[in-house]
Specification:
The complex is a heterodimer of chains A (about 110) and B (about 600). Chain A is mostly helical and about 110 residues long. Chain A has three helices and no strands.
């Protein structure tokens, strides 16, 4: 039987992998993908909660699933803006290596 | 009367500065006016003393601006204004070609004002204010020729030494006020029973008040300013160092006699300090070669006598000696001034000589003054000095012998002065060319000669003063005093007749026991120490510690924080994650 715990574990693992990707990958687009992964991990955990936590009358609480839609929408908008920034960055620095963009370093 | 000289001074300073003749006329007129008022007051049997309230914080503090007009004050007023007028007239001649004549007469008038204030005040605070003003005037007057280094130094020294005494004086006033609740002399005398029960406190108070007299009347150990003060013009030396200012200390002691009488240990100390001063000064005077310095040390010595008398619980004897001393000392100084000016400002006695014939009237009056000073009967000094000697004979034999020794020394150095200056052959060109001084200067000498001779006689002095009680020891003391005087005179004549230079050469005495050097060393050492400590604090604690420390701390802290600016994206993301972890930890698990 699959319980809430399994789903949450998967969600946590996905989140960690995404975070690790943000921290460790060099290409800015890969970093962005990892960021998306983190968002989706959050989505997964929300839906898991919605499926397994039932009300008194046995009806599931659907507000979490509505919230997931919000998150997907926000993620889409964020991707649009973020990619625009990446393009501008590429035009300025001619590189997608994130380590090269360190002119604010003391 | 008090304010006349003040107005003169103010007028001179503000209006008539560029007109020296007018200034001098104003000053002399003002002082003569005061003298006339003093005579009138003296004649009045019971003059009304009025009082203006200045600070009224009863019952804590009540300071009036009031005048006291009892017999003591009346006599002092006569002395101060009388001798003051004479000296101002003399100054008309002495300062004739001086450039700062207006300034001189303004300062002189201001001095008269302050001195009259001291004499007239009826409470400690007012007296202290005028006391300080007298100190300021003396600074202005001694430093009259301020472009001379020595004069400026001397004026500074006088004022500072005075201030040290005044510091003690103020403490004494505060203590007396705390104990009796009032500063007015008359009320304090009535409240005296309150503190007679605390002898220690009383002794300290009296001694502190005495400090004021030590400073003003140049007693040991604050005597160092008086000889240096001879840098001022000779009429100034006559006025403030012979007749009036130094007498202010003695006057103050007599005025607060009611306080001093009830503290026997203080009395003893006062008497001893007076004696030490008298002996010390007389010893030093025997080796001085500047005519004014000899007279200065002689003043110191006579002041020692007066303070000694106060310490032997007889303010009357002290005042008597002050009275006679004022006349003959002023006479001597003015005579010295006439010699100096007629010899074109030569002051070394070994460059004078043979002046008896050339400056005849000066010589005669000088002889009268000298005989009065050394206590040759029947001149005035004999009677007053005798009164003090009798007092010492009856109360404290050690002091008596010391005082007798001083009388011998006094005769010795004064006759030395006479012989070297007036007899023998002239030793330098100015001496050969000396002629008698102009009438403006001679007349005051003649006027003063009379009281110098006569003021000692009982019937004369009784008019002015309360006489010390008649002694019972008969003629023993006067005989001893006369003998001492004669021995001193003969010794001096024998040693100094027809000499070209001093046969005695005692360096210790000539350098006045090295007091100046000791004080200079003391001051330099303290200042040096203070300077070193301050420099250390300034360089290491304030500069290193606070200023650099503060900036260093900020800098270091900033460097630490700078490490957080890693500059690359992933670094920031890592720090972000750390923050989240911390947040979760603190909200859920704590």
């Amino acid at each position: 039987m699959l319980t809430l715990g399994h789903y949450l574990t998967v969600s946590g693992l996905l989140f960690t992998i995404g975070f690790a990707g943000v921290l460790l990958r060099r290409n800015i687009i890969i970093i962005f993908m990892s960021l998306e992964l983190m968002l989706n991990a959050a989505n997964l955990s929300l839906i898991a909660f919605s499926r397994f936590r039932l009300n008194v009358a046995g009806i599931p609480n659907y507000s979490a699933q509505v919230f997931v839609f919000f998150i997907i929408t926000v993620a889409a908008a964020e991707v649009a803006v973020g990619l625009a920034i990446i393009v501008a960055l590429y035009r300025a620095r001619q590189t997608t290596h994130v380590e090269d963009v360190s002119s604010l370093k003391f | 009367m008090l304010l006349l000289p003040f107005f003169a001074a103010a007028l001179i300073v503000f209006l008539t500065k560029p007109l020296p003749s007018l200034s001098s006329f104003l000053a002399v007129a003002a002082t003569l006016g005061s003298f006339i008022c003093a005579c009138i007051i003296f004649g009045t049997a019971n003059p009304q003393a009025f009082e203006v309230t200045w600070i009224d914080l009863r019952p804590v503090l009540y300071v009036p601006l009031g005048f006291v007009l009892d017999d003591l004050t009346k006599t002092m007023l006569l002395i101060v204004t009388g001798i003051g007028s004479i000296i101002q007239i003399y100054s008309l001649g002495y300062m004739q070609e001086d450039a700062g004549k207006s300034r001189y007469f303004a300062s002189l008038s201001f001095f008269m004002f302050s001195m009259l204030g001291v004499v007239l005040s009826n409470n400690f605070v007012m007296m202290f204010i005028f006391w300080e003003l007298v100190g300021v005037s003396s600074y202005l007057l001694i430093g009259h020729w301020f472009d001379r280094d020595t004069a400026a130094e001397a004026a500074k020294k006088a004022f500072l030494t005075n201030r040290i005494g005044d510091f003690g004086f103020m403490l004494g006033i505060l203590m007396a006020w705390t104990a009796t609740g009032t500063v007015v002399f008359q009320e304090m005398a009535q409240e005296l029973d309150r503190i007679t029960g605390y002898p220690g406190y009383l002794t300290v108070t009296v001694l502190l008040i005495f400090c004021g007299a030590v400073g003003k009347s140049a007693q040991f150990p604050l005597h160092v300013w008086l000889p240096d003060a001879m840098e001022g013009p000779t009429p100034i030396s006559a006025l403030i160092h012979a007749a009036t200012m130094v007498a202010a200390g003695v006057y103050m002691l007599v005025r607060v006699g009611f306080l001093i009488q009830v503290a026997p240990e203080a009395l003893n100390l006062i008497a001893w300090i007076g004696t030490i001063t008298a002996v010390l000064a007389a010893l030093v005077a025997t080796q001085q070669n500047d005519i004014k310095r000899i007279l200065a040390y002689s003043t110191l010595s006579q002041l020692g006598y007066m303070v000694m008398a106060v310490g032997l619980a007889s303010g009357e004897a002290a005042m008597f000696h002050l009275f006679t001393h004022a006349f003959f000392k002023a006479l001597l100084f003015l005579g010295a001034g006439s010699i100096i000016v007629m010899l074109h400002h030569e002051q070394n006695i070994w460059k004078m000589g043979g002046l008896a014939g050339r400056l005849g009237i000066t010589f005669l009056t000088f002889v009268i003054g000298t005989l009065a000073l050394i206590g040759f009967p029947p001149f005035s000094g004999f009677f007053s000095k005798d009164a003090i000697l009798v007092l010492a004979y009856e109360k404290n034999r050690t002091i008596f012998w010391l005082a007798l020794f001083t009388a011998f020394l006094t005769a010795f150095y004064m006759v030395r002065l006479l012989v070297v200056v007036f007899f023998g052959k002239p030793r330098s060109n100015p001496a050969r060319a000396g002629r008698e001084a102009p009438w403006v200067m001679i007349t005051p000498l003649m006027i003063l000669a009379l009281p110098a001779f006569a003021s000692g006689f009982g019937f004369v002095a009784k008019l002015f003063l309360k006489m010390p009680h008649e002694h019972e020891s008969g003629w023993v003391v006067p005989a001893m005093a006369f003998a001492a005087t004669l021995i001193g005179m003969t010794l001096a004549i024998v040693l100094y007749r027809r000499r070209e230079s001093d046969p005695l050469d005692i360096i210790l005495l000539r350098k006045a026991f090295g007091f100046d050097a000791i004080y200079a060393l003391l001051i330099r050492a303290t200042q040096g120490l203070l300077a070193t400590i301050s420099a250390f604090i300034d360089r290491w604690i304030l500069d290193m510690g606070f200023v650099r420390g503060l900036s260093g701390a900020t800098w270091g802290f900033g460097s630490l924080l700078r490490l957080l600016q890693v500059g690359n994206l992933q670094g920031y993301a890592f720090l972000f994650g750390l923050g989240i972890v911390g947040l979760i930890y603190f909200t859920i698990f704590r």
